[in-house]
Amino acid sequence: MSDPKEIPSVAHVEGSGIPVHGNDIDTDQIIPARFMKVVTFDGLGEFAFFDQRFDDEDNEKEHPFNEEQYQDANVLVVNANFGCGSSREHAPQALVRWGIDAIIGESFAEIFAGNCLALGVPTATADSETIETLQSWIEDNPDGDIEIDVAAETVTYDGRTIDVDVDEAQRKALVDGIWDTTALMNSNTESIERTAAALPYVENPKVQTGRSDD
Amino acid sequence: MSERTLYDKVWENHKVTTLPNGQDQLFVGLHLIHEVTSPQAFGMLQERDLEVARPDLTHATVDHIVPTSDRDRPFENEAAEEMMAELEENVRSVGIEFDDPTTGKQGIVHVIGPEQGITQPGMTIVCGDSHTSTHGAFGALAFGIGTSQIRDVLATQTVAMEKKKVRKIEVTGELGDDVTAKDVILTIIRRLGTDGGVGYVYEYAGEAIESLGMEGRMSICNMSIEGGARAGYVNPDETTYEWLEGTDEFEDDPERFEELKSYWESIGSDEDAEYDDVVTIDGSEIEPVVTWGTTPGQGIGITEEIPDPESLPDDKQDTARRAQEHMRVAPGDTMEGYDIDVAFLGSCTNARLPDLRAAAEIIRGRAVDDSVRAMVVPGSQRVKAAAEREGLDEIFTEAGFDWRDAGCSMCLGMNDDQLVGDEASASSSNRNFVGRQGSKDGRTVLMSPQMVAAAAVTGEVTDVRELPKVEVKA
């Protein structure tokens, strides 16, 4: 994975939708802290929205992530300030492991959107009316096809194409397949060293980036 | 775009290059790590056969899962023990300094950095924790990152970021009695919204901010993220330098202090700096603030009425209705008299020495109400030791508070310190999200340490200014 050529372009995402309604849905709701007592992200998918989906006796509550018709969905449609609060990457990791490949919403918290980008998950935005219309359409057409064109910043469903916004850096990173920043940045060793050397508080400007030999 | 602000200057001198995706690559001066968000990043590094670039600029502590009582190893909770052991192995294998509980320096990551003087003005600081904004109190550019970004920083000591706009928030005037930094930041978030800061960093300025000590400034910068701003800062001044001069980093090295001070003095926002937005708030009008809902933006002055959802903007009504149902509060009431079951004094927002002193001042000579379980969780082992030297522990324990060890504790309920069932807490922490304190039916009311102390002794949300003074025998 450290070779940038292996990172796929995410220019298109296509599939069926799943709506989750509500503003200010924080990352504690997306993945409660008690499920973060793990040292890998594996297996987080089943805990996505856990406390919204199950009561104290683990009985299912009403939630889109529990509903049969959405089990194959991969395009999540949400409202404003989605993913606010804790920086936990466990939140998008849980959504991705549940099956989500792209999110369309009114707005996203910054750290959450950045975490999504690091996983190659587009976060496209549109105004509240557009989002609500799309959410209602999905509820009526749970098997309906939704196509996100990241490069063109459009979403096509129900025979119509609507404009959405994808942050410029995110769009370029996804479309060009340069969203994995480790490899991208690791090639700039000399510039990193130069920057560090010019900072008065960095005592030892020697930077040892690169792969280990063993 | 902003010009000649601290943000512009620190961004510029840490910028390595502009990446092909349009983001800037920034050098990271200090990378703080803890046990919850770093193990996966170390795992990713291993998968790619990459080494940690700058262990010397990386610093670790344990705070999120660590028990706040009975810390004998192995920890009773197996998952906690596993996370602790994983961190120990990761830091040991690459030689990262680790403030574990045996060092006497362990504590919440946003308390220990400033305490030891490793948090400094004009630095870039990152940590896999959204409250990294706290370090902005020192004039550092500090922000929370996700685990994939931790991997980036471990591997390269750099991070990919997009430059944001700068909003100056000027808090004018003098704060009233028992009005604290916490009340100021809750007021700012209420005014600008929980997403008002998306796309911005916040520069806090004005008389009410400048007159605060470093701890108060940290409380304010800490909750920038609750207002949607990934970073917030205060320009460094004499208060900042005085703090730094007494820390581990500089107390024996006056030369280095003077040398760096001239750098620190150079990175503050210029008089004629340009901002993308300026907001002014009259600090003298702020009263003690409590939250009535389930987002930090749902706050009111203690004497104010809980709003009718109908009176709010359209996009806030639904959230407000659900919040009022969860909290079991009604429009038109005040929060005064709201029964509480738990008093939590702790967190990276409000668990430093002056916070504990101020709360102890209220507690002295009183007892915790019978209906309340109350706990103090100092922000660090050093805060705890300093408080004990002053006898604060005795004031708290005599009143019926539990006096615990340092950690994040009930702020996010990852260790055993949790709300049970539908308990309501008076909490000095930063998030009142549903389920945040460990129980999905739990109810959190955010407030200042003084207000938590007042609620603890009365068993209900109380205006600390109205609490009669207790005569204490000398």
Describe the protein.
- Chain A has 214 residues and is of the alpha/beta class.
- Chain A has 2 domains: 11-178, Aconitase, domain 4, CATH 3.20.19; 180-214, no CATH class.
- Chain A has helices at 27-30, 50-53, 90-98, 110-118, 128-140, 168-175, 181-186, 189-197, and strands at 12-15, 17-19, 75-77, 102-105, 123-125, 146-149, 154-157, 160-163.
- In chain A, the strands form 2 sheets. Chain A has a 4-stranded antiparallel beta sheet with strand order 1-6-7-8, with no helix packed on it. A 4-stranded parallel beta sheet of chain A has the order 2-3-4-5.
- In chain A, strand 3 (75-77), helix 3 (90-98) and strand 4 (102-105) form a beta-alpha-beta unit.
- In chain A, 50% of the residues are buried.
- The model of chain A is unreliable at 1-5 and 205-214 (pLDDT under 50).
- Chain B is of the alpha/beta class and 474 residues long.
- Chain B folds into 2 domains: 6-162 and 236-265, 2-Layer Sandwich (Aconitase, domain 3), CATH 3.30.499; 290-466, Aconitase, domain 3.
- Helices cover 32% and strands 17% of the residues of chain B.
- Chain B contains 15 helices and 19 strands.
- Chain B has helices at 6-14, 39-47, 78-94, 109-116, 147-156, 181-192, 207-210, 214-222, 238-245, 254-266, 314-327, 353-363, 381-389, 392-399, 449-458, and strands at residues 15-18, 24-27, 30-33, 58-61, 97-99, 124-127, 141-144, 158-161, 165-172, 200-205, 231-233, 277-282, 289-291, 299-301, 342-345, 373-376, 401-403, 424-427, 443-446.
- In chain B, the strands form 5 sheets. A 5-stranded parallel beta sheet of chain B has the order 5-4-3-6-7, with helices on both faces. Chain B has a 5-stranded parallel beta sheet with strand order 17-16-15-18-19. In chain B, strands 11-10-9-12 form a 4-stranded parallel beta sheet.
- In chain B, strand 4, helix 3 (78-94) and strand 5 form a beta-alpha-beta unit.
- In chain B, helix 6 (181-192) runs parallel beside helix 8.
- Chain B is globular and about 55 Å long.
- In chain B, 61% of the residues are buried.
- The mean pLDDT of chain B is 97.
- The interface between A and B is large, with 69 and 82 residues.
